[in-house]
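Supplementary material to the annual report.
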Amino acid sequence: MSQSDKALIMVIDDNQEFLNGIELVLEMEGYQVWTALNGQEALDALKDDFAGGGASGAKTYDRLPDLILADIMMPVMDGYEFYERVRTNPYLNSIPFIFLSAKSDNVDIRYGKGLGADDYLSKLAEPEDILASIQGKLRRVDQQRNLAAQFVGEMGKPSVGALVFVIVIAVVVAIIACGAGVFLALNFLS
Amino acid sequence: MNEQTANTVSIRKELDSNKILIVDDIPMNLELMKIMFRDSNYELVFANDGPEGLEKARQESPFLIISDIQMPGMSGFELCKRIKNDDQTKDAAVIFVTAHARSSKQVREGLEMGADEYISRPFERDELLARVNAVARLKRAELEAQQQAILVAQRNKGLELLNELAVATTSSLDLQRILTFSMQKLSQIFDAEMIVILMPDEASQKLIVNIASAGAEGITIPVSIKPGLSTIDLARRRLVASILARISNEHNYPFTVPHPDNLDLITTIPMISKEEAVGAIAMIDRQPRQFAEVEWSQLISAVSIITVAIENAQLFSKVQNFNRRLERKVQERTRELAEEKDKVEAILSSIVDGVLVLDANKRLVTLNNAAQEMAGSDAESLIGKPITSDELASPLWNCIRYLADNSEKIATASVDIPNVNKPGGYLSIQAHSAKVQTETGETIGMAIVLSDVTAVMEVERMKARFMAGVTHELKTPLAVIRLHTNNLAAYHDRLPQEKREQLLKAIQAQVKQLTSLVEDTLKLSRFDAGVASIEWQSVNLNQLAGQMVDEMRLLAEEKGISLSLSASSPDIILNADSKKLKWLLNNLIDNAIKFTPAGGSVGVQLGLDTAGGKQSALIQVTDTGIGIPIDERERLFDRFYRVDSAHTIPGTGLGLSIVKEIVTAHGGSISVTNSPDGGSMFSVSLPL
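Predicted assembly:
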């Protein structure tokens, strides 16, 4: 599997050591990982390529991440704000977004989910659970992509069935139209 | 006044009912009369003419005058006329003697002039004596009747005065007036030289001696008496005499006081009330007095009248005193109540909590200043209003209504209301209600206390924030440890040795971080709970700082940082907790080392600060790090605040909070500025 075939996950957390840990897990599980220390830093890195002009000297990436994993309590730009920025950006708004926070009160979870995040996980969750959630979101994205690709492909080289279906429809329409025309004409003449 | 009374009542000079005056100008006739009366009991006085007869009649007061009619100079008729016209002699009987044959005209003339009998010369001895005896008998009866009349008049007068005394004494309830009047009247009735009224005074344990003397103002003198003297003893004349003698000696009393030995001059009557002696009245005379029965009974009556009057007056004054005391008590009580009310009102108005009182109909009876401020209206517009009124619509009144409708005896509710003093701000109010009940359990009202718990809530919120911070800070290293251990366990085979060691080191660092966090949290919570007592002792700051710098030099050198200490001499000695001072120095130096890049330097300076007139120890820790932006300096001592937000530099975020607590507990101050070398400088000032 080449580097570009791997799913790309962006992890944002203000704790460097935590970033190191999560990065290692994800890499070991076959993901490509980008990290950022806060929302602003992440946004800058993304904007550089996809929103036209980012902060100079910041890391640049040649693609969009497949999933975002973000902490909430961070300096400069916290997770909630970053989420809003991502969701209101047409390039980014379809990327699955998971909150990974030390804030694990029901209130926080409800709030995070209420915003529309795809999941809300505790930093203290088992790594397996974090991985399961990531895999689930990515699989759904894959399914959606495949469906879209399938639909576009079918439209490109239509099958016999589809052709027959189109012809039958056309005939039926023609018959109804003729019927209606004769009916109207007869009415008019009489 | 006394004399006048005596004149009208007393008898004129009494006629001698044995003495006969014979007036004749012929000596032989006088001799003849002598012979005639030789064997009789009558005493004879002679006069040779009218004028002499008149004079003798005045001097000798004979009951009978036998006079010749024809005398040279003054005739018998003339003499008779004069005698009858003289007050001194008019009661004497007159018998005319004449040699002339009695003419009816002469007889009539003589009798009209008041003559009692007519005797013609010559007369028989027997005839003369019979006539004289008859006149004498008549005169004696007349005199006796006269004396009786005088006595009656005297008694009447006494009774009249007694009546006056009774009326006067009973018409007044003023003791002094009664005493004065009683003494006046007594001396008037009995013509006494001096009246003394003795009354024991229970309150002062003294004998009150009231003295009045004829023609002088009465005086009242309290006299100490020997204890155990019974009231009946007051009526002892010897006692009265000795008291008077004492008063006369000691008080320069202007009246003549009888010699104590002459007890005959003193008459005493005990004042008896309800069969008990309550005092005594003494009468002092100039001459020893013989009481007629009438006088004695009058005196007894007078004394009992006075006794009753005095008793009444004393009773009245007792009642009056009682009344006055009662009145004073009432006034006092009224004043006390007013003071109590003022006090209660003052307390109510000075109470920070709002207080409302409702009656049984849920009407506002009273509310204090704080409650008015919370309600946003003044008492005038609220008192008397039922709290169910639609006008009272606000979260606060809803809360109060909720409590008033509550069936529990005591209840609590909370409400947030806008803070009048801080636009946009809110006050957290906790309302407690208590029903006011009578002994029978009837609810007669309700008291509601509104406590502003904003500050308490703020502390609670701060505590909660701290707890949340602690939890959050605990969770992060735990999460890291969990990730790293998981990585080590799950990917052991695939990780190079170098990576595995790196992960183990990271785990160790996180455990160390956790340990420091727990320690720092404990330190802080001990300060918060107020149990972090400062163990004051004399500390040599130079020694302590030297020790700390030596201990930390290795750590600094590992990072390539030079650590130096500069101190003035002599050594600074201050009163402090050396253990906590070590924490302080450790935290500050450790911080400085952490935030200084390799090749930099950290310096500790000790000195004395005399700013503000008070000497204090000054500790300055400088570094050559990046410095701290001005806008972050204020938050620097906040818990969990870190300049290094990426956690690249290990630390709990509590170190400076602990430093601040230590400084505060020592009564010192801490500030942070830029050091001259571009880094930052922490300055701690501690009182010596």
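Chain A has six helices and five strands.
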